[in-house]
# Entry
Amino acid sequence: HPHEILDALAAAGALKEVIVKSTHSPEDAKALFGEYWSKVESGEILYMPVVQYCWGHHDHARKILPEWLATEPRTNSMYEMCFDNKKDTAALNKIAALPVKPRIWINTMWNDLSAGHGECAEYRNGRNSFHLGMLEPEKTWGWAIGKGASMIQTDSGAEIILWLERKGLHNLK
# Structure
């Protein structure tokens, strides 16, 4: 219910306090936001398209990424990029080629969102998943930063802050 949520956020003066994410095309997102779309374009509402080169959504991602890139530059532009294989990470080159660089969000919590560079080794057996322990930060967070991420989703907040401080990267923008 995006309008009800946005109305409540606007009433509370909190439109800039959240990041709204969806897998919609630009056309569908504009329709979804309605009268709030101008606030997305101006950066008053932080909106992040989620481009999923994973979970069978590859064709949709290949279609909507060029559509979103054609809308640039947007104020406070950002993308969540998800990859289940290394081949599709080449899509990040299209974003890097833009004159104004949008922010990139990569979720490193799971291998199928970060092209095999997930934080935890997992053993999956049907519906059950068991975390076997943290992998090397350089191979996860280092990989994401190397791919252009300035935002990393993790369940390991304290660990990533310490790692970023050791690397001299804690103040990434």
Remarks:
- The two ends are 31 Å apart (CA to CA).
- The chain has a mean pLDDT of 89.
- The first helix runs from residue 2 to 11.
